[in-house]
Design goal:
Distance between the termini: 25 Å
Largest sheet: none
Structural class: mainly alpha
Radius of gyration: 19 Å
Helix content: over 70%
Number of helices: 8
Number of domains: 1
Length: 248
């Protein structure tokens, strides 16, 4: 799961992006969609390539190193893309590559210890959720106002506290292994719920920015913001399914 109080790409919207008014070369929803799709395809291609490599080619040290370094580099790319919009094209591409490496390694490990098409289920669940949340947002069933934002940030804070409690209980050995696993699954379910709510929040930020006529170069940053939450959602769904479908 990803711990955040706001999407790192969007959080300083008022300062970094500004409300520049209408532009002759303004960002569009179609542009954001195409770039989001491109980033998803690149991330998926890299993840598939890494995930299908023979596991014998990876030592334990290499796996651990890759699992630690790749998400760190990916997050650095998010920060750089936010700070330097003119170079955001390069940084978002690099983010997709390194995030793909992480997802490929994670998928490789999950497949080794689970039964059934766990990756297919995780992908179906992720994109099904994104599609449903997009319908919910565009239909106006849920309004992303100040009360919604307050609820969302409270939910995120609750998630963070649950993780801290889980870590403490695991270290101290207060709960049994089975109890710890149940608690962890509960955290994952709640994290998936929070990430779906963040989808609505991020859709609204994209609408706000495009509606205010930000320059077209910001489409890469807007797309990156959506990819961040989609990857977060996929990772949590994959982890939950890995527990449910693990080999005995």
């Amino acid at each position: 799961m990803r711990f955040r109080g706001d999407n790192p790409v969007y959080k300083n919207y008022g300062d970094s992006y500004g409300l520049e008014g209408s532009s002759d070369y303004a960002a569009s929803y179609g542009g954001v969609f195409r770039k989001t799709l491109l980033l998803l395809m690149l991330t998926g291609f890299v993840a598939y390539y890494i995930g299908t490599l023979p596991t014998i080619d990876f030592s334990i040290g290499t796996l651990i190193f890759g699992m630690i370094v790749s998400p760190i580099v990916a997050y650095i790319m998010v920060i750089l893309a936010h700070r330097n919009v003119a170079m955001s094209f390069i940084y978002t591409i690099l983010y997709a590559i390194f995030e793909g490496i992480f997802l490929g390694l994670l998928t490789m490990i999950v497949v080794m210890y689970t039964e059934g098409p766990v990756v297919l289920y995780a992908l179906s669940g992720t994109f099904g959720t994104v599609f449903v949340m997009l319908l919910v947002y565009t239909s106006g069933i849920v309004t992303v106002g100040e009360r919604f934002k307050g609820f969302l940030f409270t939910a995120f804070g609750t998630l963070f506290l649950l993780v801290i409690v889980y870590i403490i209980l695991s270290i101290t050995g207060v709960v049994t292994l089975e109890g710890s696993l149940t608690f962890y699954m509960t955290i994952l379910v709640f994290s998936i719920f929070v990430s779906t709510m963040y989808l609505l929040y991020d859709f609204d930020r994209v609408r706000e920015m495009v509606g205010n006529g930000v320059d077209k170069q910001y489409e890469w940053s807007l797309s990156l913001g959506l990819i961040v939450v989609i990857v977060w959602l996929y990772v949590d769904i994959l982890r939950l399914l890995a527990i449910i479908m693990r080999r005995d």
